[in-house]
Design goal:
Elements: H1 3-14, H2 19-44, H3 48-79, E1 95-99, H4 108-115, E2 123-128, H5 130-133, H6 136-147, E3 151-156, H7 163-177, E4 186-189, H8 195-208, E5 212-216, E6 232-236
Helix pairs in contact: 7-8
C-alpha cells in the first residue's frame, strides 16, 4: 500500500464524512490514550505531582508540534515553486518592457537590477496608468534608471482594463525599439500590473516574437514578494497549436 492510499484510509477514520468509521477511529484513539495513561501511572504512580507534570508535558508537546508544523508549512509555501532551473532563467537583456505596479512592494526594482547586471540593460519601456505615472514611486523608478545609465521610455495606458489597448501600446513600444540597436534583444515582463495587462503584453509579444519573463519569488499571505536570493525571472515559453495542412 502506497503512502497516498494509506493517508486516504486513515482520513476516513479521522473525518466525520463516514460516521461509523469516525466513531471507530475515536474509540481507538481513546483506548490508546487510556492505555498510555495507565502505563505511565503504573510506572510512576498516580500522584498529583506526576499528573500535573503529565498534563504540562502533553500540552507542551502538543504546542510544539502545532507550532513546528505551522512553521514548516509556511517555509514550504515560501520556498515552493521559487526554484528556477538555470536553463529556464531569463538572462539580462539590453531592452526591457516593464509594467509598473501601484503596489509599493512590487518587484520592479529587483527586475531592473537583474537586467542591469554587468550593465546589460540600456533601455526600459515603463507601462503605467496615468495615476501610477504621476506617483512618487514611478518618479523614483525613472530616476533609478537614469542613475544606472538606462534610458526610460514612458508608455501611458489610459485604460489598464482593456486588453486591446494594452496590446496596441506594447506593439508600439516594440516598434519604437526596433531601430534602437542597443535595445536588442528585447524582453517583456508580465509580473506587475493587472491580469488584463498581462494578457495584452503576452499576446503582443507572442505576435512580435519577443520573449516574455515572469519574476519568480517567495510571497507572503497577501501575495507581496519577499526578499530572497532565489528570486529570478523565468522565461515564459508559449507553445501554439498549429492546424495541419
Amino acid at each position: 500500500m502506497n503512502q497516498s492510499s494509506l493517508n486516504d484510509l486513515l482520513r476516513l477514520f479521522l473525518e466525520t464524512r463516514v460516521p461509523v468509521l469516525f466513531l471507530i477511529g475515536s474509540l481507538a484513539l481513546a483506548i490508546l490514550g487510556n492505555a498510555v495513561y495507565e502505563l505511565l501511572t503504573g510506572v510512576f504512580g498516580a500522584t498529583p505531582q506526576f499528573l500535573i507534570a503529565l498534563i504540562a508535558g502533553a500540552v507542551m508537546i502538543f504546542a510544539f508540534v502545532v507550532v513546528g508544523f505551522q512553521r514548516l508549512l509556511r517555509g514550504f509555501k515560501r520556498r515552493g515553486g521559487t526554484t528556477v532551473e538555470p536553463d529556464r532563467q531569463a538572462p539580462p537583456h539590453p531592452g526591457l518592457i516593464l509594467p509598473v505596479s501601484p503596489n509599493p512592494q512590487a518587484a520592479d526594482t529587483d527586475i531592473i537590477a537583474w537586467h542591469q547586471r554587468d550593465a546589460t540593460l540600456r533601455h526600459c519601456w515603463l507601462l503605467a496608468s496615468p495615476s501610477v505615472a504621476g506617483s512618487e514611486r514611478f518618479r523614483d523608478l525613472k530616476q533609478t534608471l537614469l542613475e544606472r545609465n538606462v534610458t526610460p521610455h514612458v508608455v501611458l495606458l489610459d485604460d489598464v482594463l482593456r486588453a486591446d489597448q494594452v496590446y496596441a501600446k506594447v506593439r508600439d513600444a516594440i516598434n519604437q525599439a526596433a531601430p534602437v540597436g542597443d535595445a536588442w534583444p528585447l524582453i517583456a515582463d508580465i509580473t506587475g500590473g493587472t491580469k488584463v495587462m498581462t494578457a495584452g503584453i503576452l499576446l503582443a509579444c507572442l505576435d512580435a516574437g519577443v520573449p516574455v519573463q515572469y519574476w519568480v519569488t517567495p510571497r507572503d499571505r497577501r501575495g507581496n514578494p519577499l526578499p530572497s536570493e532565489e528570486s529570478c525571472p523565468m522565461q515564459v515559453v508559449v507553445r501554439t497549436l498549429r492546424s495541419g495542412a
